[in-house]
Design goal:
InterPro entries: YkvP/CgeB_Glyco_trans-like. The chain is of the alpha/beta class. It is about 35% helix and about 15% strand. A hairpin with a 7-residue loop joins strand 10 and strand 11. About 50% of the residues are buried.
Length: about 750
């Protein structure tokens, strides 16, 4: 625990105005010294990335720790900084090679196409170090069912050859010259931590499609690994583009290399499943442009296609709406204009538009395309643009556009469940409709649940997201329409459509927005709260009896206790046999969490599911970096014991996390840090430990002796599902919203 507090102090000192630069400089010196003691540094390879035939070893290391690692540059041709860094702690602050040297190196995936872990198991020790000291050893590069064998020296020579062309971004690896049915243009941009997944998918599709990957302003590791992939999968085409190229210019060069019937073009910032790509292609076969409905970084809709509504820029239909507002639309809808950088369309139409109209922007391309064919949006394909826009120059539209699409746009807005009252100038030089939500029944309300989790894949692993989904389902059962706003959408411009907002207060502050009733439900981080924050809300709830009472007394705000809950749609017994496994599910949070670390140090086996554990526990204890939420009920029910701990502030203030509710709801057994009232609430299914010695005593005891029998656990589970379900919580929130609305009406006399 002392080490954890020291780490936190150093972490905070890096942000201080005077001390921060000194600490960060010391970091770089320490990184350089650690790396300098390694034999993995290839100064020639690094110099090649800089554009020099060779640089001194010390200069290569100094440049790498100061700047190079942030551009994906690598000190070793067998080490992909971006891929390796994705598994290692503090990836955006710490050089990946430094983090690798301090980790269990045998377990780190260092390259997208070479399995260093398997190589190390065969030859002993960390695979990277063994291969680098045995340059004549043969290694295997594999991708998409292809295999290429090469010695380490041969792979190094290929990496050097690719690195020489990186700074100029000149690449030309053509696709098959023979005609084909489907073409795929899959751009990759810089900083993309999931680029290898996109490349692997492109390589797999090259077995039956004509695929070209434009590398647009990419980092060094991305460039080199893409070229090595093209060696493994010769059917894969590559091209190189500068970061400020226009999107149509990139598209024109890529399309010219394809001789196909239908082409699919994907936004470099988004991921698609193969089924989604196939659905777009199949729709485009009817001589139309098929579009997904892209979602912005904050999770809101970018546009169900676009419409010319009188502004200089076309309006993305339903832009800035929560994604749930798409559910009322048909699976395929006609739209006036293409919107976004992903689509499938007849290749002849693509070529004709690019060559005859020579558009200089994505906007001009969309307007030129509409004269040649119609466009359809597939409303069930909703990828989030999870990367920032780092490439493609896009000039701003300079003149007012037509309003010829207002009728079509209004029809789609109406189909989504809204009335169009008028039109107004919006953001980004667009003209957008003034909307009003249409109530399906007189008592129905539109609720927005606002959470601290990010949108997309990053937020999918947050407990806050699952919390919100469980609450949303319960509110829908009460007849309401419910949307969920990720943290970056907390103040979305369409919040005026909502009747009620529920802020689920976690690690970040979220202020109420819009004219509707505002409720706050505090579930963690009570020490970060202020009186001013709570005073903004119509009603405030907190997941702690103790903290609610203290806050009422201290601040004079009526905070009512409302404990966390369980999603009974998912968490109920399934009759799974119990094993002897001790299980923990959760992230490391950057600290050595005692509920996990103490048993492991004592030699007790714990199966850990969660990210960021490498610095704290042996890799052998990590069962998986993640576990699907739908799999948790069986995992909890089958465990002998599930461990639980809390944020320190939550424990002090009596906040009980959601995990004990979920575990007990399936008939599971929990050993937890002591939190006010936890044993009483769960009636023997949760045992609290007082200190580390007590924790070990409990884990070394026979669980059947210290916990109730299966029949009694079943009864406790049934009670928890009845009393602590999201349905029970939704009833309280619903009544609170009605009470708050009545109080508002009484104050205003309406």
């Amino acid at each position: 625990m002392r080490l954890g507090r020291l780490r936190e102090s150093v972490r905070r000192s890096r942000e201080l105005p005077v001390v921060g630069p000194v600490v960060r400089a010391a970091d770089r010196i320490w990184w350089a010294r650690t790396i300098g003691r390694s034999e993995l540094v290839d100064a020639e390879y690094y110099g090649t990335q800089l554009g020099f035939p060779r640089v001194p070893r010390s200069i290569a290391i100094a440049h790498y720790v100061a700047w190079g690692f942030r551009r994906g540059m690598s000190l070793n041709p067998l080490f992909d900084d971006i891929v390796a860094g994705g598994q290692l702690p503090e990836v955006f602050r710490v050089p990946a090679l430094y983090a690798y040297l301090l980790s269990e190196r045998e377990t780190v995936r260092v390259h997208p196409w070479w399995d260093a872990e398997e190589y190390g198991r065969k030859h002993g020790g960390p695979g990277l170090e063994h291969a680098w000291t045995h340059r004549d050893a043969e290694i295997e590069l594999t991708a998409a069912g292809h295999l290429r064998r090469a010695t380490v020296d041969e792979m190094r020579r290929r990496a050097l050859a690719a690195a020489r062309t990186w700074r100029r971004h000149r690449a030309s690896r053509g696709v098959k010259s023979t005609p084909g049915d489907v073409g795929l243009i899959r751009p990759i941009q810089a900083r993309d931590r999931r680029y290898d997944r996109k490349l692997a998918q492109a390589a797999a599709r090259a077995a039956h499609d004509r695929v070209i990957v434009p590398l647009v302003g990419v980092d060094a590791s991305q460039w080199v690994s893409a070229h090595l992939l093209a060696d493994v999968v010769p059917e894969l085409g590559l091209s190189g583009e500068r970061s400020r190229v226009t999107w149509p210019a990139m598209l024109h060069r890529a399309a010219a290399a394809l001789d196909v019937d239908v082409s699919a073009v994907l936004d470099s910032r988004a991921e698609f499943t193969d089924d989604e790509i196939d659905a777009l292609v199949d729709t485009a076969r009817a001589h139309v442009v098929a579009l997904p409905v892209h979602r912005a970084f904050d999770g809101t809709v970018l546009g169900v296609g676009a419409a010319e509504t009188g502004g200089a820029a076309a309006w993305g239909i339903l832009a800035e709406h929560p994604v749930e507002d798409l559910d009322a639309l048909d699976a395929v809808v006609d739209v006036p204009l293409v919107h976004g950088l992903s689509m499938a369309l007849p290749h002849a139409v693509l070529r004709e538009t690019l060559e005859r109209d020579a558009p200089t922007s994505a906007t001009a391309f969309a307007r030129a395309l509409r004269s040649r064919t119609g466009a359809k949006a597939l409303t069930g394909i909703r990828p989030v643009l999870e990367e920032p826009t780092l490439v493609f120059a896009e000039p701003r539209p300079s003149q007012k556009g037509s309003d010829r699409d207002r009728g079509v746009a209004a029809d789609l807005v109406t189909a989504a469940g809204f009335d169009v009252l008028s039109w107004r100038t919006g953001e980004g030089r667009t003209v957008e409709p003034v909307r009003r939500w249409r109530r399906p029944t007189p008592d129905a309300e539109r609720w927005a649940i606002k959470i601290c989790a990010p949108a997309g894949r990053r937020g999918a692993v947050w407990g806050d997201m699952h919390f919100a989904r469980g609450l949303a389902a319960a509110l829908r059962r009460r007849g309401h329409t419910v949307v969920i706003d990720a943290f970056d959408a907390r103040a979305r411009r369409t919040a005026d459509l909502d009747d009620v907002s529920v802020v689920v207060r976690g690690p970040y502050r979220i202020d109420p927005v819009g004219p509707g009733v505002s409720l706050q439900w505090i579930i963690s981080h009570p020490d970060d709260l202020t009186r001013g924050e709570l005073a903004q809300f119509d009603r405030v709830f907190a997941a702690s009896e103790r903290w609610s009472a203290r806050t009422r007394e201290r601040w004079g705000i009526d905070v009512q206790p409302l404990l966390e809950a369980t999603d009974t749609d998912l968490f109920h017994p399934r009759g799974v046999d119990r094993t002897d496994e001790i299980v923990f599910v959760g992230t490391a949070r950057g600290i050595a969490r005692p509920s996990v670390v103490v048993p492991l140090r004592a030699g007790l086996p714990v199966r850990v599911y969660g990210p960021d554990w490498r610095p704290f526990i042996p890799h052998s204890a990590i069962a998986a970096q993640t576990i699907a939420h739908a799999e948790l009920p069986r995992r909890y029910e089958s465990a002998s014991i599930v461990l639980n701990d809390q944020w320190p502030a939550m424990r002090r203030q009596g906040f009980i996390a959601m995990r004990p509710f979920d575990v007990v709801a399936v008939g599971g057994r929990v050993i937890s840090e002591d939190v006010d009232g936890i044993e009483e609430i769960f009636g023997g299914a949760v045992i609290a430990y007082r200190d580390e010695r007590h924790l070990l005593e409990l884990l070394e005891a026979d669980p059947d002796e210290i916990f109730p029998d299966r029949v009694r656990l079943g009864q406790i589970a049934e009670r928890v599902r009845a009393e602590h379900s999201f349905d029970a919580r939704a009833a309280i929130l619903d009544e609170a919203a009605r009470s708050a609305r009545s109080a508002r009406s009484a104050r205003t006399g309406r």
